[in-house]
Automatic annotation (TrEMBL):
Belongs to the threonine synthase family. The lineage of its organism: Bacteria, Pseudomonadati, Pseudomonadota, Alphaproteobacteria, Sphingomonadales. Its EC number is 4.2.3.1. Keywords: Amino-acid biosynthesis, Lyase, Pyridoxal phosphate, Threonine biosynthesis. PROSITE patterns: DEHYDRATASE_SER_THR. Residues 99-343 form the Tryptophan synthase beta chain-like PALP domain. This is Threonine synthase. It catalyses: O-phospho-L-homoserine + H2O = L-threonine + phosphate. It comes from Novosphingobium album. Residues 3-80 form the Threonine synthase N-terminal domain. It is an enzyme of class 4 (lyase).
Amino acid sequence: MDYVSTRGSAQALDFAGATLAGLASDGGLYVPREWPRFTEAEIAAMAGRPYAELAATVMAPFVGESLTRERLLDLCRAAYGRFAHKAVTPVRQFDEQQWLLELFHGPTLAFKDVALQLLGLLFEEFLGRSDRNLTIVGATSGDTGSAAIDAVAGRAKVDIFMLHPRGRVSEVQRRQMTTVLAPNVHNIAIEGSFDDAQAMVKRMFNDAAMTDRFAIGAVNSINWARLMAQVVYYFAAGLQLGAPHRPVAFSVPTGNFGDVFAGYVAAKMGLPVERLIVATNVNDILHRALTSGDYSQGTVTPTAAPSMDIQVSSNFERLLFDLGGCDGAALAAQMAGFEATKTMQLTNAQAQGAAALFTSARADADEMSQAIRWAWEECGELIDPHTACGVHAARGAGIDKGVPVVTLATAHPAKFPDAVERATGQRPSLPVRVGDLFEREERCVDLPGDYAAVTAYVAEHAVPKG
């Protein structure tokens, strides 16, 4: 298995190379040259396996010769052994059709842990084979930062620089990042939005002054290995609800399109996915793209679901590439136009291909609160605002009654206690394992939303590639 760039001109890499590279040298995102596919019998045989074994089975075709099957299984057992629930990603029932896939049982209480706990181990594995040092640069709208920092804190040959928009992440999200005091962890609060931070990160990958000195790596969902790990929980949920013998629909709260693209990959691999419901908040570029073909950047509106306060969805590029016949040159031109004008219209092939599997819905502040209230009053479940966007979309999607609809619960409700309390009167408490979060010392640097200031800070504190 090798990996090619969505923009067509970067060198193809194996799995280890793509994992360490993150963003391709031509500005594109790495994708497998072809999608592996399981037969119905092979999927049926996965039922009942422990999560780590299922993960190794689903991911093995993507890893190729970069890891033995035994080593991949060892890494999966190490990654998922830190989760608070033995099932890792358990499924809970709302009512006769609606289900909840709990993805927040990892160390930082968010779905990002499922991928990043493994990614941290993969970095350590592949770096251990060389004298190379890796400088991870990431942007976070909330949960990626804490999950990535937890995954790589204290690991050899890795430094991590995580940018977050000052004042636009929750108190819990910020403290989960800034209270990690390992010497290889650097938190940077910038003026501006997540999109501003993400643009700086992408620019750094294509800045020769930085890439000549430092091996720049990614933990955002631009990193293929992270998306690969997220494919597994679609299989886990589908198998519990009758796959491969009946289809399952998934409602996915998303801003950067990574989590829902993992569902698309699962479908390409043979999982019977009835529908992927893309749930956004009022920052609805994905909803507009999927309903009218209009992928035009708007202004970010801060909401109670800050991890979705995004107007440029990086992973959407991977879908456009696949639906456009994997034509890297054509997509490079299309993305160059978007980057220059902040507007884009999907081609007929892209729009029609997306409509075959995807639908979408947006939730405003009232609809978000109503979904939180419904889950509590009708089902006795507390959910966070991001998950609420997914529940709102799932309940209005009009999926056939014989098909279970699974909403991905992307964060623990205690990460957003104010919004949950406003909607339900109940204030969720942090699990005991992170209960002392507000007593821990913080460490963070404030920088202006200026690329030169950020790169100067990274260059001063990072270890050269070696």
